[in-house]
Design goal:
It is built from twelve helices and eight strands. The chain is α/β, with parallel strands linked by helices. It has a domain of 175 residues: Alpha-Beta Barrel (TIM Barrel). Strands 7-6-5-4-3-2-1-8 form an eight-stranded parallel sheet. Helix 3 links the parallel strand 2 and strand 3.
Length: 260
Amino acid sequence: MPDRRPLIGGNWKMNTTRESAEALATAVVKGLAADVAETCDVALFPPFPYLQVVRQCVGSAPVQVGGQDVSGHEEGAFTGQTSARMLLDLGCTMTLVGHSERRHGLNESDEVLNRKVRMALASGLDVMLCVGETLEEREAGHSEQVVAKQVSAGLEGVTKADLERLSIAYEPVWAIGTGRTAAPEDAQSMHARIRADLENQYDARSATSVRIVYGGSVKPANADSILAQPDVDGGLIGGASLDAGGFLDIVRAAASVEAS
């Protein structure tokens, strides 16, 4: 991964309580070795109610805290939504946009997600844009076309300069929470295609600089082989991020690939 520092994000989804969120964040911070933190970026995405307590636990440690979602609106009468300004006010530095459980589970369109991406970037947040195909789309042979459209539409109006604060998570929907995972070679193939699409949309230099992480049932047991792929720049970790020890094993795997 030329000049691309690996990124491992822990998406806690709708899990934890205040007490367990505090314990989990504290364990991650305490277990993160200095040499690992120097070669791998780490981010935690806790549920909205626990962002403040997790941010306090992180303190000055080299761990970013981010939202699992963000509104595409600056402020106003949008009940239940959370603005970029609110995330920043809590000390967040980044946000997920388009996770499959929102894109497919809540039917958020490419247009809605693009508005979120642009609002978050304009407000000063880093963005991890999530893309990925369903099992039906994969079995129909449409995986690459579906993902290419999601990338292109999600980045509409995003400038080359903005790409410095943006990463992409490829998360095949059929491999999230199912125990199934893409073979390392399959993940590499899709990541390479995404990078080629970025080159077509922007240029080769921009495409080379964007981090593309994999998010589909990554665990300590398969992390080494997935993260060793040349276009896989880290991972967005779901279930395995709820165990500090397992999550840190994945972080160490990413750091060791970077160091080798």
